Amino acid sequence: MSPTIEVTGLGKSYGSEPVLASLDLVVDGGVLALLGPNGAGKTTLVSILTTLVKPDSGSARVLGHDVVRDAAAVRRLVRVTGQASSLDELLTGRENLVLLGRLLGLGRRAKPRADELLERLDLTAAGGRSVRGYSGGMRRRIDLAASLIAPAGVLFLDEPTTGLDPTSRARVWEDVRELAAAGTTVLLTTQTLDEAEALADRITVLDHGRIVADGTADELTALVGGQTVVLLDAAGTVIGQSETDGTPASVARALTALDPGNVEGARIELRSPTLDDAFAAITTRPREEVAA
């Protein structure tokens, strides 16, 4: 059985600037979070996989269909939430969802499904208003509702929770988990590391158009290595720290080196690397080093 998403030697440039450089990627179910700094190539990759942009070289297949030769088949099988609204500005939020649901084959189920999503994303009161009058956060939520209106083989979410309040974001997370549990493959791009850690079975880090790290959140943090022994004063301010390689002997040496002296209420903490630490370490190399 072929992978859900299969990318081989994918390349894309805009002018003389390479955005994707001979990229290889295989996704076979679950939730994949695509991380990377601005300009890393995340949105370009999603645009190619959803047939919005053609690659310059290499190939990409989604659910067995080539994104260039079988673009129409790919479009029928995927759903996308991008960074820009694609709904009819003159229709109400509810009308947009019902129309889209019917176009995607929901029939009489389109109306109750639209109402369910409006309630879930806290848009019930706004559902009867024209999308043209929605705030930025409301537009993000109605776009997300549109991508969730009908089942899909693959759901692409390009920074789906940007501009959402914590409650709405939690609801989106719940929806993503339910979709993945039901068998939908989800590929999301995000710059919110806690979102990637909370949702993704696997995290792929893109930098300068290349994959520079790939694995679970625990596997990526392990790349940083070691632990840090931190000395804090009574107010919680760091007044000293010492890096270790994680071994008991190394930690013991660090504890000995961090003498609190006469600092009243001082305490010591042992801190493990976070996903933020791993992301910073992985994506701070210059383009020449990444390409090597």
TrEMBL record:
One Pfam family of this chain: ABC_tran
GO molecular function: ATP binding; ATP hydrolysis activity
Subcellular location: Cell membrane
Coiled coil: none
Entry-linked PROSITE patterns: ABC_TRANSPORTER_1, ABC_TRANSPORTER_2
UniProt keywords, alphabetically: Antibiotic resistance, ATP-binding, Nucleotide-binding, Transport
Positions of the ABC transporter domain: 5-233
Tagged with keyword Transport: yes
UniProt keyword ATP-binding, yes or no: yes
Any one of the GO BP annotations: response to antibiotic
InterPro entries: AAA+_ATPase, ABC_transporter-like_ATP-bd, ABC_transporter-like_CS, ABC_transporter_ATP-binding, P-loop_NTPase
SUPFAM superfamilies: P-loop containing nucleoside triphosphate hydrolases
CC per GO annotation: plasma membrane
Membrane-related topology note: Peripheral membrane protein
Name of the protein: Daunorubicin resistance protein DrrA family ABC transporter ATP-binding protein
Organism: Agrococcus baldri
